[in-house]
Specification:
Layout (H helix, E strand, L loop, with lengths): L3 H4 L7 H4 L5 E3 L1 E2 L2 E2 L9 E3 L19
Antiparallel strand pairs: 1-4, 2-3
């Protein structure tokens, strides 16, 4: 049995987004450290990716 929190514990960012020079690892919003609602400690902002898929709460990155 998988809980709903487990379904969203990891995210894979497709190559078209990782290769896009406009994709960002954001640590701040408007000059302020991200708060928890906005994805503290870090979030990914990937152009042309739906907002619901913009990854929040990034704590680890792996290259596959």
């Amino acid at each position: 049995d998988v809980s709903s929190s487990d379904l969203y514990s990891t995210s894979v960012l497709p190559g078209k987004h990782t290769a896009d020079e406009l994709t960002l690892l954001a640590l701040e919003l408007n000059g302020e450290t991200l708060n928890l609602d906005h994805g503290y400690p870090c979030r990914i902002i990937a152009p042309n990716r739906p907002g619901v898929l913009q990854t929040k709460w990034v704590t680890k990155l792996e290259q596959l």
